[in-house]
Specification:
This protein has 67 residues and is an all-alpha fold. It has one domain. It is built from three helices and no strands. The longest helix has 23 residues. The protein starts with a helix and ends with a helix.
């Protein structure tokens, strides 16, 4: 809520990479989460491990491709 309130008071700058890359990665993780959770009503260890591995891969990609 703090960042949202600050954005209402004064517009916050957004880097172009945030929209062109990071937004799509966040959307992909959200889309991947839905079938993992709604299949049985909870996230299993395998699904969690899959998401964790994908996140680790994304972090490795961010480190290897600095802004």
């Amino acid at each position: 809520m703090i960042l949202g309130a600050a954005g209402v008071v004064r517009p916050l700058p957004i880097e172009p990479r945030m929209i062109s890359v990071d937004l799509w990665v966040m959307l992909a993780f959200a889309v991947l989460l839905f079938p993992l959770v709604f299949r049985r009503g909870r996230l299993t260890r395998g699904g969690g491990a899959c998401l964790l591995a994908a996140y680790a891969g994304y972090l490795a990609w961010l480190v290897s491709h600095p802004r």
